[in-house]
Specification:
The chain has two domains: about 5-55; about 70-269, no CATH class. The protein is built from eight helices and eleven strands. With about 270 residues, the protein is α+β, with helices and mostly antiparallel strands. The strands form two sheets. Strands 1, 5, 6, 7, 8, 9 and 10 form a seven-stranded mixed beta sheet that branches. The longest helix has 28 residues, at about 25-55. Pfam families: Sa_NUDIX (PF18167). Keywords: Membrane, Transmembrane, Transmembrane helix. InterPro entries: Cap16_NUDIX. It comes from Chitinophaga arvensicola.
């Protein structure tokens, strides 16, 4: 719904109110009311569809404008891969703070030099609630000092400037470097963007701060039969480095054999 549509909806509302207030003659009013309702109903349908499709964005605007706008908020901006074969989803072991299995993926990285000015204006700093390895210092895990600046931060992220935009890095680190698939078979990858997943602002389960979690979901496509065969081979082998899980297992958080599946894995379904 663009600005023109919003103006049309508001104009139809005003016209309807003016008809009720200014036109006193019943015979004249009936015609005008019928005309106004026609305009209003058309605009209202589009307006309701817009609200439904953008309810998360609208909720975010309200929660950053009217609820503790000057309190700090932790943000994590990530991407996850949906890799499925024979009705099961490929998950790798988490090497960080939580034991369990999760989709291939990780946090986007930013260019420190290119974002200095933007992050200063937004008042965003690296999050230090968890230990940060040297190679992860530019991860998009941040603390924004005032949550009302979250929308400006997301506008910067959506501009795609001075940040990582290709999800290939984590695929390479978690699969090729771990020896699960070969660089010869996966010199590059093909993938589709599926959706973006945004949580509402909520209290962190780990740290004394509110947080906002965002993830882009990509689906891996087989470039050739060799790539598909590589994952079929993994499916028929056993390893502590990975598992294959059904959608139901991901939803319940456990495999039939008792392996733990981390909560955020549901985002790829």
């Amino acid at each position: 719904m663009n600005k023109k549509s919003i103006i049309q909806f508001l104009a139809a509302c005003v016209a309807f109110i003016l008809t009720l207030v200014l036109i006193k003659e019943p015979s004249d009013r009936a015609g005008w009311i019928k005309f106004d309702l026609g305009l209003l109903s058309a605009s209202l349908i589009e307006f309701v569809v817009y609200i439904w499709e953008n309810h998360k964005k609208i909720k975010l605007i309200l929660s950053t404008t009217f609820i503790n706008p000057n309190s700090e908020i932790r943000v994590s901006i990530a991407y996850l891969f949906r890799i499925s074969i024979n009705g099961k989803y490929f998950l790798v072991r988490n090497h960080r703070d939580q034991p369990g299995y999760q989709p291939v993926g990780g946090v986007y990285r930013y260019s420190k030099e290119g974002t200095t000015h933007d992050f200063t204006e937004i008042d965003a700093i690296p999050c230090t609630y968890m230990e940060v390895a040297a190679h992860s210092r530019n991860d998009l895990r941040l603390i924004i000092k005032k949550r009302k600046m979250l929308r400006r931060f997301l506008s910067w992220f959506e501009s795609r400037k001075n940040r990582e935009i290709d999800p290939h890095r984590e695929f390479h680190e978690e699969l090729v470097e771990e020896g699960l698939v070969s660089a010869n078979t996966f010199p590059y990858i093909q993938y589709d963007f599926i959706k973006k997943n945004m949580t509402s602002i909520q209290r962190s389960k780990k740290w004394p701060v509110d947080e906002f979690l965002y993830a882009d979901i990509f689906e891996l496509n087989w470039e050739n039969e060799e790539q598909k065969a590589a994952f079929e081979k993994l499916l028929n082998e056993e390893s502590e480095k990975y598992i294959f899980a059904t959608a139901d297992e991901i939803k319940t958080g456990y495999t039939a054999s008792g392996k733990v599946i981390l909560e955020h894995s549901k985002k790829i379904l």
